[in-house]
Structure formats: structure tokens, C-alpha cells
Amino acid sequence: MPHLLHVWPNISQRLLRASHVLLLFDYDGTLTPLMPNPGQANLPPQVRKHLTELVSSGKYLAGVISGRSLKDVVAKVGIPGMIYAGNHGLEIQGPGLDFVHQGALEQAGAQVQVTGELESALAGIPGVIVEPKGLTLSVHYRSTPEDHLDTVEEAFARVAAPFVESGTVRITHGKKVLEVRPNLPWDKGKAITMLQETYPQASLTCFFGDDQTDEDGFGVVQESGGIAVLVGPARQPTTAWHRLDSPGEVAQVLSLLAQG
Ligand SMILES: [Mg+2]
To answer: For residue 157, how far is its CA from the centre of ligand 1 (angstroms)?
Structure first.
């Protein structure tokens, strides 16, 4: 799998040929390094500067597609004119676009119920953060000691089981995070397809992501002739055709793009 910077002349030619580019990023682990507490993951100033420049160029339709809530992503990035997709694309705001998945809204009550039950079941386990995000919910355990991990997973599985069995929700795993999502055929890939349809002027889509939930996006982007980039070590299995080592290298790519 080629490192994106090693094939940059080729990539930059493809970017040059496109009049408009849909330029999409995951947030945690992609635009910012992963932090013990997700509240600490702030957008590096250089990344903010380059994204702002790219948006104002008019060529790049830049966006962030995150598992965080839309409100949280907007609070973390907040650059005007960008596309923001929260809860893995269940809620999206962008130029001329204001979308919330109707099916997800309909099961928001189940999220409240699961949140309450998980908070009780996981209370007292060190380092666990139960984060309700409206349409989905995350249980973070990046700071949880190794010897408590089984307890976290068992309690999570026990609480989630009846909701999964009733067909209301589905469970996904990310890096030190478990998630409860509505059981809907919707993911980052579907969200990217919707963005491609909303912004047809973009003839090329690029998507950068580091985690399991980004894989849905990689597939869609590559099928459309775009560029999918896994951010992380080469040994990580992926469907993406390109990679970068770290969020630091993503910042380097943004700097190259901003130089035009
Ligand atoms: Mg990520």
C-alpha cells in the first residue's frame, strides 16, 4: 500500500485536473492525535489555518465526518463554510445542506434508555466515559487499566444485548471505544455518497480516516475513483489504497494542498 507522500506527484496531478474536490476527514486520530479523554483532542492551529485557506480557495469542499455528535464536531472545528457530519453521518450540515436521518431520530429514545443502563452498569470502573451523543452513544475506555477491560466489555454486552436482539440498535467497535448506533443501513460511506450527490461539481473525493468505521467510507470513495487514505501503521488491515503514518502527516498533506 503506497504511502501518500511517496506518490505525491501523481496525487497532485489528479488534484490539479479536478476543478472542485470533496476533501473529507475523520476527526480523532486523523486531524488530531488520539487523546486519553476525547475532550482534550483539539484541532492543531496549523491544521486549522490550512483548512481555512483551502475552504476560502473555493476549489475545496472540505468536511469532517466524525463519530462525535454534530454539535461537538462544530464546536471542535468551527471553520465557516465547511461540511460537518456528526454521529457517523446521521446528522450533516454544510453549504445548502441540513440533514438528520429520520430513522435515527425515531430511535433516539432507545439511546436515552441504553445510556442510563450503561451508566449504572459501568459506574465505578476507572477511566470509563459514557458519552451520550443524541443519535448514538460511545463508551470510551482509553484510560481504563488493562485488568478492567473484560469487565467493561462484559457489562456493555449485557446491557446492549436486549436492544440488539430487538433490532433497535447495533454495536460497533473502534479504537478503545464501543458504540451503540441505530440499527440502520447508514454509515460514513452512505454519508459520503450523499455528499457526492449534494456537491456534484466535485469530480474527485478524498477521504482520510484512521479507524474501523472509516472503512465504509474508503470503499465508497475508491469505487467513485477517489482517493482513500488510512492514517496509521502499515500493518493495520484496511481497504484503503493509500496510507499516512500519523495525524502529523495529514497536517503535512494539508500544508502541501494549501500551497497549491
Ligand atoms: Mg478516528
So the answer is: 22
User: Is the whole model's pTM more than 0.85, yes or no?
Assistant: yes
Question: Residue 194 Cα, ligand 1 centroid: separation in angstroms?
Answer: 20
Rg of the chain, C-alpha, whole Å: 18
CA of 25 to the centre of ligand 1 (A): 9
- 145: cell is 487499566
The 10 Å Cβ neighbour count of residue 192 is 27
Which of 26, 187, 210, 211 is labelled catalytic? 26
| Residue-wise pLDDT tens digits, 155-181 | 999 999 999 999 999 999 999 999 999
Q: At 256, give phi and psi (nearest 5°).
A: -60, -45
Give catalytic status of residue 147 as yes or no.
no
Which residues make beta-bridge pairs with 183? none
Find, among 42, 71, 212, 186, the residue nearest to 133 by Cα. Answer: 71
DSSP-assigned beta bridge partners for residue 138: 131, 179
Can you tell me whether residue 60 is helix, strand or coil? strand
Beta strand pairing status for 21-25 and 60-65?
parallel
Phi, psi of 112, deg, nearest 5: -60, -45
Is residue 9 left, alpha or beta, with left meaning phi > 0 and alpha meaning psi from -120 to 50? alpha
Q: How many CB atoms sit inside 10 A of residue 215's CB?
A: 18
Pairing of strands 129-132, 137-140: antiparallel
Q: pLDDT tens digits, residue range 69-93?
A: 999 999 999 999 999 999 999 999 9
Cell numbers given for 229: 487514505
How far is residue 124's CA from residue 126's CA, in Å, rounded to a whole number? 6
In the chain, the domains with their CATH numbers are 4-101+186-258 (3.40.50.1000), 104-182 (3.30.70.1020)
